[in-house]
Amino acid sequence: MAQESKMETVTTLRASYVPPKGLGVRLRGIRGELLEKHIAEKIRGEVQAELNTQSPEMDYCSTTQKDFCVEGFVPLTPETTQVHDYKTDEAVTFWSENYQRVQGVTAVQNPKAPFRKSALFSTPINERLDEIDLPPDD
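Above: the chain sequence. Below: its structure as tokens.
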């Protein structure tokens, strides 16, 4: 067997296959073919017109530009009524406003900072030095 030989491209299927021959007679009439071409051309024109329509002029304006950048608007900064230090002041939340109604929380030592660390929960009662002595149980 020679190394340079090429594979044959003819198979038994290709050798035995014969393409079908046309009948030589029209299968459709001239009028039907012309009607089909006319309808196809009409539909193609409608689709092209639909795809190539000019889009309306878009107004690219954000909500901020439309609502907050109105000409003639002068922002007013309200004057402060109290001095607040955001670094040391306790935040005002639902729980800080309603700390008296929260159940299962140790006693509040400082009403301005009710959720600070407290060792009262774990300190035995007789070791609490800063509290007023409770009357003995009878």
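The radius of gyration is 46 Å.
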